[in-house]
Specification:
Length: 384
């Protein structure tokens, strides 16, 4: 056994040995240091002691291999389960008649669903710096029902999947005096002409995310934008100051727990809460309900007023104090500095709190070590 070490270095031996010279338990390496079997009875401390060779162990007769177990023919009535993961490969061969997705315990703050420009269903990372999504090849929302999404543990994810699915299937309210804001459609930029802020409403009932929403006054009108899909809605000739808060509609958890109204610079009491009853919603774990049956009018009955405005929600707005009952767990989320939404701060969400915390900055760290120890094969090599 050879060990390389620098001149003047030292080594501490981490196991027993026999010594040609008395160097104690630790000392400089010399050519007289010989290693022996620590489990053997050496009969002395000299380096020349001979050990008897043990009798060879005869291997038992080899066990003959067994025949492989043949998997039973899959039951075509049960279908397959595909893991939903934006970082994974696309899903190929999904059969909407019997197959389903598995979202595990992922939170809506880490995963959303969307529709590609070609109409296929996509599982999306809402915080990826570059587009990150898993496509269900050849499958559109028109092909699916709530059952295809399996048991979705996170309540807010159930709500947002249900909003997207309901919009695509034509379920739920479609009022003529209401413009429905969506978030899930890649490549969709809508222009709404002749929007009357005094009598018409903006509804987020079918909105499919809790993150990266911005509202900005522009030269053409009020622009409502969502990343990472890039979907936009432009109210031509309208400013944020003209909006009446009570004409902004959200379902309960969007505002009471996740503060989407922050994007407009208004309070939760000012906006109207509408029920999501009747929407297609994936099933939750046994014993859990999906919130959203509440409804109440907003008390913001006059125009917002003020000057030119730019606001955001989902890590972009200033925020105010709401409780949170989203039990989906939490992760540190990145954001795309080039998404055109200002300087996005990552947020941390605990199991019982969705308030944004200051970002954690990871700085380069240079260590200067004056002492080190490495354990290799039972030997402790130290440098002081």
């Amino acid at each position: 056994m050879g060990i390389e070490y620098s001149p003047g270095g030292s080594v501490t031996i981490g196991f027993n040995g026999s010594q040609g010279t008395a160097i104690g338990n630790s000392g400089s390496l010399t050519s007289a240091l010989l290693f022996t079997d620590v489990n053997a009875n050496t009969g002395g401390t000299g380096g020349g002691h001979q050990h008897p060779e043990p009798d060879p162990v005869i291997d038992p007769d080899p066990i003959p291999p067994t025949d492989p177990v043949v998997d039973p023919t899959p039951n075509p009535g049960i279908g397959r389960v595909f893991a939903a993961n934006p970082a994974a490969a696309d899903i190929v061969g999904f059969n909407p008649a019997v197959d389903r997705l598995d979202f595990g315990d992922v939170s809506v703050h880490n995963l959303i669903v969307g529709k590609t420009s070609t109409g296929e269903v996509a599982i999306i990372n809402p915080w990826a710096w570059t587009p990150e999504f898993q496509i269900i090849r050849g499958v559109s929302f028109d092909d699916l029902t709530a059952a295809n999404f399996g048991i979705v543990q996170n309540e807010h994810l159930r709500q947002d999947i249900g909003g997207v699915l309901s919009w695509e299937l034509g379920l739920g309210a479609r009022n003529s005096n209401t413009v429905y804001v969506r978030s899930h459609e890649y490549g969709v930029q809508e222009r709404i002409e002749n929007f009357n802020p005094a009598t018409m409403k903006l509804s987020f009932l079918y909105y499919g995310t809790r993150e990266r929403l911005t509202v900005s006054d522009t030269a053409e009108g009020l622009l409502i934008a969502t990343q990472p899909t890039g979907q936009t809605l432009l109210l031509v000739g309208v400013t944020r100051s003209q909006l009446i808060p009570a004409n902004l509609e959200f379902h309960h958890d969007q505002v009471v727990e996740d503060r989407l109204e922050d994007a407009f610079g208004v309070t939760v009491e000012q906006v109207t809460v509408v029920s999501r009853t009747g929407l297609a919603t994936p099933q939750g774990p046994a014993g859990q309900i999906t919130d959203g049956h509440q409804s109440r009018p907003g008390n913001g009955l006059t125009p917002i007023g003020g000057g030119e405005f730019s606001g955001g929600a989902g890590g972009h707005g200033s925020g105010h104090d709401h409780g949170d009952h989203d039990h989906g767990g939490g992760m540190d989320h990145g954001s795309d500095p080039g998404d055109g939404m200002g300087e996005a701060l990552p947020i941390l969400r605990s199991p019982i709190q969705s308030r944004p915390h200051p970002p954690i900055l990871f700085l380069p760290l240079v260590l200067s070590l004056s002492r080190w120890e490495v354990i290799v094969g039972g030997m402790a090599l130290r440098r002081s």
